[in-house]
Design brief:
By secondary structure, the protein is of the alpha/beta class. The strands form 2 sheets. Strands 1-4-5-8-9-10-11-12 form an 8-stranded parallel β-barrel, surrounded by 8 helices. The protein has a two-stranded antiparallel ribbon with strand order 6-7. The protein is 39% helix and 18% strand. It is globular. The longest helix is centred in the middle third of the chain and has 17 residues. The protein is built from 11 helices and 12 strands. Bound molecules: ligand PBG.
Length: 329
């Protein structure tokens, strides 16, 4: 015997009020982390070709941007720096007056409540573009940890709230936790890019961050897109090493991975809706093929539904505006 016509799921979809009341997933600007690309100079606000509405910003522009973000109720930024020059180890990465260190201080001065997260990796700073030190064509692991430790400590010194190692080196979380703690920064959190795939969706970011490797690729440290059990292993290792939050990256081809992590890790989970995912939507919208507003809100809701607490996304500002409009139409 069929439940129909007694049971009718459409009843709960009758009115906007009912639909809102029984919605299983919420999306709010509070969940967003907005990525910023910081460059040297003054009055620089240069659009990144493959990422419409995303800019290279000098520090004066960054502080202006942060004011706008607070008005939109976006609570956090993640900083990526473009150094004045690159070298084999990436000296500016841990310099007191490095571009990111300067940006942290400026943001905190202008807006102490803005949560400042920093990306901790070598690739934007090294002349070879790799995420670790290189010898004989190989990316070294343990030697790289010392640098990551120095970078994280220098970010903490400048006032960062959270450091986010993204280089997929084994032991990076433990090395950074130890470095922070022995220098008195026990209160600085670690958001680990625990599950970062060797993805082709980072293309536009590498243009923006000028971090394309000069030779080879990142497949000896970033994960194989075919693997999900290994994602749990990576996440659990980071939990043991002292991570406060874990990340899955990219988001959209890996919603199952976010879900699996949600089922087995207690920590907050962040998902990185990466540059290529952003550019695809912007390109389709520019052609009139997709409704940008609807697609973005649906996408971000999907990432939340899969189990992400936080979303790093270049759509943050537009989405926050749309969400505001929905509340006060
Ligand atoms: C590495 C890093 C990358 C991204 C964030 N941190 C690129 C990479 O691994 O090559 C990608 C972010 C994006 O595509 O939006 N520091």
């Amino acid at each position: 015997m069929s439940a129909f016509p007694t049971v009718r799921p459409r009843r709960l979809r009758t009115t906007p009020t009912l639909r809102r009341m029984v919605s299983e997933t919420s999306l709010s600007a509070t969940n967003f982390i907005y990525p910023l690309f910081v460059v040297h100079g003054r009055d620089v606000r240069e659009e990144i070709t493959s990422m419409p509405d995303v800019f290279h910003l000098s520090i004066d522009q960054v502080t202006r941007e942060v004011g706008e973000l607070s008005e939109l109720n976006i609570p956090a930024v993640i900083l990526f720096g473009l150094p004045a020059r690159k070298d084999p180890i990436g000296e500016e990465n841990f310099a007191e007056d490095g571009i990111v260190q300067q940006a942290i201080r400026a943001i905190k001065q202008a807006n102490p409540d803005m949560l400042v997260i920093t990306d901790v990796c070598l690739c934007e700073y090294t002349d070879h573009g790799h995420c670790g030190l290189v010898r004989g064509g190989h990316i070294l692991n343990d030697e790289t940890l010392d640098i990551l430790q120095r970078v994280a400590v220098s970010h903490a010194q400048a006032g960062a709230d959270v450091v986010a190692p993204s280089g997929m080196m084994d032991g990076m979380v433990k090395a950074i936790r130890t470095g922070l703690d022995t220098n008195g920064y026990t209160g600085v959190s670690i958001l680990s890019y625990s599950v970062k795939y060797a993805s082709s969706f980072y293309g536009p970011f590498r243009e923006a961050a000028q971090s394309t490797p000069m030779f080879g690729d990142r497949r000896t440290h970033q994960m194989n897109p075919a693997n999900a059990r290994e994602a749990l292993r990576e996440a659990h290792l980071d939990v043991e090493e002292g991570a406060d939050m874990v990340m899955v990256k990219p988001a959209l081809p890996y919603l199952d991975v976010i879900y699996r992590l949600r089922e087995s890790v207690d920590l907050p989970i962040a998902a990185y809706n990466v540059s290529g995912e952003y550019s695809m939507v912007k390109a389709a919208a520019a052609n009139g093929w997709l409704d940008e507003r609807k697609v973005v809100l649906e996408t971000l809701t999907g990432i939340r539904r899969a189990g992400a607490d936080l979303i790093l996304t270049y759509h943050a500002k537009a989405a926050a505006r749309w969400l505001k409009e929905e509340q006060h139409p």
